Amino acid sequence: MIxxxxxxxxxxxxxxxxxxxxxxxxxxEDGHIIPTYHAxxxxxxxxxxPVTDAGNIVLIREYRHAAKIILTSPPGxxxxxxxxxxxxxxxxxxxxxxxxxxxxFRLVGTCYPYPAGQDNELHFYLA
Length: 127
Hints:
Blueprint: E1 6-15, E2 19-27, E3 33-42, E4 45-49, E5 60-64, E6 69-73, E7 76-78, H1 86-98, E8 106-111, E9 122-126
Parallel strand pairs: 4-9
Antiparallel strand pairs: 1-2, 2-3, 4-7, 5-6, 8-9
């Protein structure tokens, strides 16, 4: 059975209102020591797949600076500090990014978008 790594030392190397960077020193079950493992502590996100009454999916185009690219994608975004109502986050992001409001939201699923490097959850909604 796979077991979590044991954290020998952990320190916060950066923190602001949206994310943190934690640096851990870990030991695996086989005794191998990972001297420096960086983990991004990211704010949870909500992403919405809005479908209009005509059956069209509403997408947005926006510039994503980290990748330096303009993408077409479903609307969504991060929660504000302390928020835990993911549907409310998704509703807000849909309105902010598209001007649309939906009668109904259904949680489609939750995932960890990049679990090897960050700890946040991504909540998907059909609206």
